[in-house]
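Summary for the steering committee. One of the milestones for this cycle was to obtain a three-dimensional model of the protein with (~{Z})-2-methylbut-2-enedioic acid bound, which we needed before selecting residues for the alanine scan. The sequence and ligand used are listed below.
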Amino acid sequence: MGTFSRSGLERLKARRRAVILAHSYQPPEIQDIADLVGDSLELSRAAASLDCDAVVLCGVRFMAETAAVLAPGKAVLNPAPGAGCPLADSMDASSLRRLQEEHPGDATVVYVNSSLEAKAASWACCTSANACAVVSAAPTREVVFGPDRNLGAFVARSTGRTLWVFDGSCPPHDGADIADMERMRRAWPDARLLVHPETPPAAWDLADAVLGTGAMIAYVKSSGARRFLIGTEAGMVHRLSVLFPGREFSAVGRIGCPNMKKASPEAVFSCLEDMEPRVRIDPSLAEAARAAIGRMTAIG
Ligand code: CIZ
Protein backbone atom coordinates (compact mmCIF):
# COMPACT_ATOMS: atom_id res chain seq x y z
CA MET A 1 0.00 0.00 0.00
CA GLY A 2 1.40 3.45 -0.97
CA THR A 3 1.73 6.11 1.69
CA PHE A 4 -1.15 8.57 2.00
CA SER A 5 -0.52 12.25 1.47
CA ARG A 6 -2.89 14.98 0.28
CA SER A 7 -0.67 15.86 -2.68
CA GLY A 8 -0.20 12.18 -3.59
CA LEU A 9 -3.96 11.69 -3.46
CA GLU A 10 -4.54 14.67 -5.77
CA ARG A 11 -2.02 13.27 -8.29
CA LEU A 12 -3.63 9.82 -8.16
CA LYS A 13 -7.12 11.29 -8.58
CA ALA A 14 -5.98 13.22 -11.67
CA ARG A 15 -4.31 10.12 -13.13
CA ARG A 16 -7.43 8.00 -12.61
CA ARG A 17 -9.86 10.83 -13.54
CA ALA A 18 -11.54 10.04 -10.25
CA VAL A 19 -13.80 11.86 -7.83
CA ILE A 20 -14.27 11.15 -4.13
CA LEU A 21 -17.86 11.26 -2.89
CA ALA A 22 -18.56 11.05 0.84
CA HIS A 23 -21.74 10.77 2.86
CA SER A 24 -22.34 13.40 5.55
CA TYR A 25 -22.07 10.66 8.22
CA GLN A 26 -18.45 9.84 7.25
CA PRO A 27 -15.59 10.70 9.66
CA PRO A 28 -14.20 14.27 9.41
CA GLU A 29 -10.93 13.10 7.81
CA ILE A 30 -12.90 11.53 4.94
CA GLN A 31 -15.25 14.48 4.50
CA ASP A 32 -12.19 16.74 4.36
CA ILE A 33 -10.61 14.91 1.37
CA ALA A 34 -13.87 14.49 -0.56
CA ASP A 35 -14.79 16.41 -3.72
CA LEU A 36 -18.42 16.32 -2.67
CA VAL A 37 -20.08 15.58 0.67
CA GLY A 38 -23.81 14.96 0.70
CA ASP A 39 -26.77 12.69 1.29
CA SER A 40 -27.59 9.57 -0.73
CA LEU A 41 -29.61 11.53 -3.25
CA GLU A 42 -26.85 14.04 -3.93
CA LEU A 43 -24.19 11.31 -4.10
CA SER A 44 -26.31 9.22 -6.50
CA ARG A 45 -26.94 12.15 -8.80
CA ALA A 46 -23.26 13.11 -8.71
CA ALA A 47 -22.09 9.55 -9.47
CA ALA A 48 -24.33 9.50 -12.53
CA SER A 49 -23.60 12.98 -13.86
CA LEU A 50 -19.97 13.88 -13.07
CA ASP A 51 -17.51 13.70 -15.94
CA CYS A 52 -15.02 11.14 -14.57
CA ASP A 53 -13.84 7.56 -15.07
CA ALA A 54 -13.85 6.46 -11.44
CA VAL A 55 -15.92 7.22 -8.34
CA VAL A 56 -14.68 6.47 -4.82
CA LEU A 57 -17.87 6.15 -2.80
CA CYS A 58 -17.27 6.63 0.94
CA GLY A 59 -20.39 5.45 2.71
CA VAL A 60 -22.02 2.09 3.29
CA ARG A 61 -22.47 -0.74 0.81
CA PHE A 62 -25.94 0.11 -0.51
CA MET A 63 -24.69 3.59 -1.46
CA ALA A 64 -21.80 2.17 -3.50
CA GLU A 65 -24.17 -0.33 -5.15
CA THR A 66 -26.66 2.42 -6.03
CA ALA A 67 -23.85 4.49 -7.58
CA ALA A 68 -22.67 1.47 -9.60
CA VAL A 69 -26.18 0.96 -11.02
CA LEU A 70 -26.43 4.64 -11.95
CA ALA A 71 -22.92 4.88 -13.43
CA PRO A 72 -22.39 1.64 -15.38
CA GLY A 73 -19.56 3.08 -17.47
CA LYS A 74 -17.52 4.20 -14.44
CA ALA A 75 -15.42 2.21 -11.98
CA VAL A 76 -17.13 2.56 -8.59
CA LEU A 77 -14.64 1.87 -5.79
CA ASN A 78 -15.60 1.15 -2.21
CA PRO A 79 -12.83 1.80 0.34
CA ALA A 80 -14.88 0.09 3.09
CA PRO A 81 -16.39 -3.06 1.55
CA GLY A 82 -17.18 -4.41 5.04
CA ALA A 83 -19.50 -1.46 5.81
CA GLY A 84 -22.99 -2.87 5.71
CA CYS A 85 -26.30 -1.44 6.88
CA PRO A 86 -28.41 -3.44 9.35
CA LEU A 87 -31.51 -1.53 8.21
CA ALA A 88 -30.95 -2.52 4.55
CA ASP A 89 -30.19 -6.11 5.60
CA SER A 90 -33.35 -6.37 7.73
CA MET A 91 -35.65 -6.70 4.70
CA ASP A 92 -34.72 -9.48 2.30
CA ALA A 93 -36.55 -10.00 -0.99
CA SER A 94 -38.84 -12.70 0.41
CA SER A 95 -40.00 -10.62 3.40
CA LEU A 96 -40.76 -7.71 1.08
CA ARG A 97 -42.65 -10.12 -1.20
CA ARG A 98 -44.78 -11.31 1.74
CA LEU A 99 -45.77 -7.71 2.52
CA GLN A 100 -46.54 -7.07 -1.16
CA GLU A 101 -48.70 -10.21 -1.30
CA GLU A 102 -50.76 -8.90 1.63
CA HIS A 103 -51.46 -5.69 -0.38
CA PRO A 104 -51.73 -6.78 -3.99
CA GLY A 105 -51.90 -4.01 -6.56
CA ASP A 106 -50.35 -1.36 -4.30
CA ALA A 107 -47.15 0.29 -5.55
CA THR A 108 -44.01 -0.35 -3.52
CA VAL A 109 -41.56 2.37 -2.47
CA VAL A 110 -38.38 1.33 -0.69
CA TYR A 111 -35.92 3.51 1.15
CA VAL A 112 -32.52 3.69 -0.53
CA ASN A 113 -31.22 1.84 2.56
CA SER A 114 -32.28 -1.48 1.03
CA SER A 115 -30.87 -4.31 -1.07
CA LEU A 116 -30.76 -4.18 -4.87
CA GLU A 117 -33.16 -7.16 -4.88
CA ALA A 118 -35.71 -5.09 -2.92
CA LYS A 119 -35.21 -2.14 -5.26
CA ALA A 120 -35.70 -4.42 -8.27
CA ALA A 121 -39.07 -5.52 -6.82
CA SER A 122 -40.26 -1.93 -6.25
CA TRP A 123 -41.86 0.86 -8.24
CA ALA A 124 -39.40 3.40 -6.83
CA CYS A 125 -36.88 3.95 -4.13
CA CYS A 126 -36.46 7.17 -2.17
CA THR A 127 -34.16 8.87 0.29
CA SER A 128 -35.15 10.80 3.38
CA ALA A 129 -34.81 13.94 1.21
CA ASN A 130 -37.54 12.96 -1.23
CA ALA A 131 -39.55 10.20 0.52
CA CYS A 132 -42.70 12.36 0.75
CA ALA A 133 -42.44 13.47 -2.90
CA VAL A 134 -41.85 9.92 -4.17
CA VAL A 135 -44.74 8.46 -2.16
CA SER A 136 -46.99 11.32 -3.32
CA ALA A 137 -46.07 10.50 -6.93
CA ALA A 138 -46.85 6.78 -6.55
CA PRO A 139 -49.48 5.47 -8.99
CA THR A 140 -51.63 3.98 -6.20
CA ARG A 141 -53.24 5.71 -3.18
CA GLU A 142 -51.98 3.05 -0.78
CA VAL A 143 -48.31 2.20 -0.83
CA VAL A 144 -46.16 -0.66 0.47
CA PHE A 145 -43.12 0.90 2.16
CA GLY A 146 -39.93 -0.47 3.72
CA PRO A 147 -37.72 -1.10 5.49
CA ASP A 148 -37.75 1.82 7.99
CA ARG A 149 -40.90 1.95 10.12
CA ASN A 150 -40.12 5.40 11.58
CA LEU A 151 -39.58 7.00 8.18
CA GLY A 152 -42.71 5.21 6.94
CA ALA A 153 -44.80 6.61 9.82
CA PHE A 154 -43.37 10.08 9.19
CA VAL A 155 -44.19 9.93 5.46
CA ALA A 156 -47.73 8.65 6.16
CA ARG A 157 -48.29 11.51 8.59
CA SER A 158 -46.84 14.13 6.23
CA THR A 159 -48.55 13.00 3.01
CA GLY A 160 -51.87 11.67 4.35
CA ARG A 161 -51.28 8.48 2.31
CA THR A 162 -51.94 5.01 3.70
CA LEU A 163 -48.63 3.16 3.94
CA TRP A 164 -48.17 -0.54 4.63
CA VAL A 165 -44.87 -0.36 6.42
CA PHE A 166 -42.25 -3.07 6.98
CA ASP A 167 -41.16 -3.36 10.62
CA GLY A 168 -37.48 -2.42 10.28
CA SER A 169 -35.33 0.30 11.79
CA CYS A 170 -31.86 1.83 11.82
CA PRO A 171 -30.41 0.70 15.19
CA PRO A 172 -28.46 3.92 15.92
CA HIS A 173 -31.36 6.23 15.00
CA ASP A 174 -34.14 4.10 16.47
CA GLY A 175 -32.12 3.78 19.67
CA ALA A 176 -31.70 7.56 20.01
CA ASP A 177 -31.31 8.55 23.65
CA ILE A 178 -34.46 10.63 24.22
CA ALA A 179 -33.41 11.56 27.78
CA ASP A 180 -30.20 13.07 26.36
CA MET A 181 -32.27 15.14 23.91
CA GLU A 182 -34.50 16.36 26.76
CA ARG A 183 -31.49 17.23 28.89
CA MET A 184 -29.79 19.15 26.06
CA ARG A 185 -33.02 21.00 25.27
CA ARG A 186 -33.19 22.15 28.87
CA ALA A 187 -29.48 23.09 28.89
CA TRP A 188 -29.72 25.08 25.62
CA PRO A 189 -33.23 26.59 25.57
CA ASP A 190 -32.32 28.96 22.73
CA ALA A 191 -31.08 26.17 20.44
CA ARG A 192 -33.12 24.58 17.63
CA LEU A 193 -33.43 20.80 17.84
CA LEU A 194 -33.39 19.05 14.45
CA VAL A 195 -33.99 15.29 14.31
CA HIS A 196 -33.94 12.72 11.52
CA PRO A 197 -37.13 10.86 10.54
CA GLU A 198 -35.37 7.54 11.26
CA THR A 199 -35.55 8.49 14.97
CA PRO A 200 -38.64 7.37 16.88
CA PRO A 201 -41.74 9.60 17.19
CA ALA A 202 -40.77 10.49 20.79
CA ALA A 203 -37.84 12.43 19.31
CA TRP A 204 -40.03 14.20 16.76
CA ASP A 205 -42.29 15.41 19.58
CA LEU A 206 -39.34 17.22 21.19
CA ALA A 207 -37.95 18.68 17.98
CA ASP A 208 -38.36 21.96 16.14
CA ALA A 209 -38.14 20.08 12.84
CA VAL A 210 -37.90 16.48 11.53
CA LEU A 211 -35.56 16.52 8.53
CA GLY A 212 -33.17 14.48 6.38
CA THR A 213 -29.59 15.71 6.36
CA GLY A 214 -29.96 17.79 3.18
CA ALA A 215 -32.99 19.56 4.62
CA MET A 216 -31.11 20.16 7.91
CA ILE A 217 -28.56 22.17 5.93
CA ALA A 218 -31.31 24.21 4.25
CA TYR A 219 -32.99 24.78 7.66
CA VAL A 220 -29.79 26.11 9.26
CA LYS A 221 -29.09 28.35 6.25
CA SER A 222 -32.46 30.06 6.49
CA SER A 223 -32.67 30.14 10.31
CA GLY A 224 -31.71 33.13 12.42
CA ALA A 225 -30.70 30.84 15.32
CA ARG A 226 -27.04 30.51 16.37
CA ARG A 227 -27.16 27.15 18.12
CA PHE A 228 -28.46 23.79 16.93
CA LEU A 229 -28.86 20.37 18.52
CA ILE A 230 -28.47 17.70 15.86
CA GLY A 231 -30.37 14.45 16.31
CA THR A 232 -28.85 12.29 13.60
CA GLU A 233 -25.58 10.42 13.04
CA ALA A 234 -22.87 12.50 14.72
CA GLY A 235 -20.81 12.93 11.50
CA MET A 236 -23.39 15.50 10.47
CA VAL A 237 -22.07 17.90 13.11
CA HIS A 238 -18.73 18.13 11.27
CA ARG A 239 -20.52 18.76 7.97
CA LEU A 240 -22.62 21.57 9.46
CA SER A 241 -19.66 23.11 11.31
CA VAL A 242 -17.68 23.31 8.05
CA LEU A 243 -20.61 24.85 6.17
CA PHE A 244 -21.61 27.32 8.89
CA PRO A 245 -18.48 28.34 10.86
CA GLY A 246 -20.32 31.10 12.74
CA ARG A 247 -22.91 28.78 14.26
CA GLU A 248 -22.66 26.17 17.02
CA PHE A 249 -23.71 22.53 16.64
CA SER A 250 -23.95 19.72 19.20
CA ALA A 251 -24.79 16.09 18.56
CA VAL A 252 -27.70 14.86 20.70
CA GLY A 253 -29.24 11.45 21.27
CA ARG A 254 -25.90 9.57 21.08
CA ILE A 255 -26.51 8.40 17.50
CA GLY A 256 -23.36 6.81 16.06
CA CYS A 257 -23.12 4.41 13.10
CA PRO A 258 -20.03 2.18 13.32
CA ASN A 259 -20.36 1.18 9.65
CA MET A 260 -20.06 4.79 8.54
CA LYS A 261 -16.68 5.03 10.29
CA LYS A 262 -14.95 2.16 8.48
CA ALA A 263 -13.31 4.14 5.65
CA SER A 264 -9.96 5.85 6.13
CA PRO A 265 -7.91 8.23 3.94
CA GLU A 266 -5.32 5.44 3.56
CA ALA A 267 -8.00 3.05 2.24
CA VAL A 268 -9.22 5.71 -0.20
CA PHE A 269 -5.66 6.17 -1.44
CA SER A 270 -5.02 2.47 -1.82
CA CYS A 271 -8.26 1.77 -3.67
CA LEU A 272 -7.30 4.44 -6.20
CA GLU A 273 -3.86 2.88 -6.55
CA ASP A 274 -5.21 -0.65 -7.07
CA MET A 275 -8.61 0.27 -8.59
CA GLU A 276 -10.01 -2.23 -6.07
CA PRO A 277 -12.24 -3.05 -4.21
CA ARG A 278 -14.50 -2.30 -7.15
CA VAL A 279 -18.28 -2.73 -6.94
CA ARG A 280 -19.40 -5.37 -9.43
CA ILE A 281 -23.12 -5.97 -9.87
CA ASP A 282 -24.77 -8.77 -11.79
CA PRO A 283 -25.93 -6.93 -14.95
CA SER A 284 -29.44 -8.43 -14.86
CA LEU A 285 -29.90 -7.34 -11.21
CA ALA A 286 -28.61 -3.86 -12.07
CA GLU A 287 -31.03 -3.66 -14.98
CA ALA A 288 -33.95 -4.77 -12.79
CA ALA A 289 -33.15 -2.19 -10.08
CA ARG A 290 -32.49 0.69 -12.51
CA ALA A 291 -36.11 1.83 -12.97
CA ALA A 292 -36.74 2.21 -9.20
CA ILE A 293 -33.42 4.00 -8.67
CA GLY A 294 -34.07 6.21 -11.71
CA ARG A 295 -37.37 7.38 -10.20
CA MET A 296 -35.53 8.24 -6.97
CA THR A 297 -33.10 10.52 -8.80
CA ALA A 298 -35.83 12.03 -10.99
CA ILE A 299 -38.41 12.92 -8.30
CA GLY A 300 -38.09 15.68 -5.74
O1 CIZ B 1 -30.43 9.83 2.54
C1 CIZ B 1 -29.42 9.56 3.16
O2 CIZ B 1 -28.31 9.68 2.72
C2 CIZ B 1 -29.53 9.08 4.54
C3 CIZ B 1 -29.26 7.67 4.78
C4 CIZ B 1 -29.79 9.95 5.48
C5 CIZ B 1 -29.92 11.40 5.20
O3 CIZ B 1 -30.88 12.00 5.65
O4 CIZ B 1 -29.08 11.95 4.50
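Key point for the committee: The chain has a mean pLDDT of 97.
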